[in-house]
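User: Fold this; tokens only.

Assistant: Input:
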Amino acid sequence: MVEELGELEENEQPVYKYAKPFGKKEKVLNYTSNAYQLTRPNKVGPVMELIRQCQPKTFDEWKSFYFEKAYTKSQKHAVKITKEILEELGERLYEKITEVVIPEWIEAFNKITLQDCVDYIYEVTIPRTYDGFVTEKSIITDSLSKIFPDIIFEESDADLDHAGDIDYIGKVGTKAFGIQIKPITANSNFGNYKPSERMQANFDSFEKDYGGQVFIIFSGKVKNKKEIQNKAVIQEIQEEIQRLKSMQ
């Protein structure tokens, strides 16, 4: 299905949307595919990287390019993506929804009480906000500032459009990179995590404005101290700092 979007001004070309809407099913499909990493680069290839390489003028051009060039992103055994592989991933998505997600949600729905809802609003508003604030400070002052002593870390300006998704910026001369800090409980396994489209759009906007990428840091408690759990991000930040320094 192809949907034409909006009214056109004079001499303006129509914009079509090719994506299929799933209505109320979208939340379930999105949650499950993210939780089980079914649309990650190691399953469907680095799609954003590929479409930027392609720079397609039409949908059919992009579709052909994808099936010609797409491989699973794996250091060991990259596999060429086919329609059959995408269908298999869809079947796995259905199995996870019907065999795991729906039973878990039904159990949760049956146990939720009014007091749970009252407590949750309070917890999110006050205790979790405080815990998050303390964690952010600890990760920056006890970890990143010591690992990168020549970098100035500042809280993101609350007035900026991307402030809700970027907690701190690391200044490298006239450039900067962004940091988002999440508790490890945001996902049972941080490898499952995938930014939403809105969040990714804010990350892209930040990079356009400041020149640097945004890095997500997962924090977790080790011997009563908050530490960075996804250690590989430290090397990624180091490489980004060197890249930004070379641009000065």
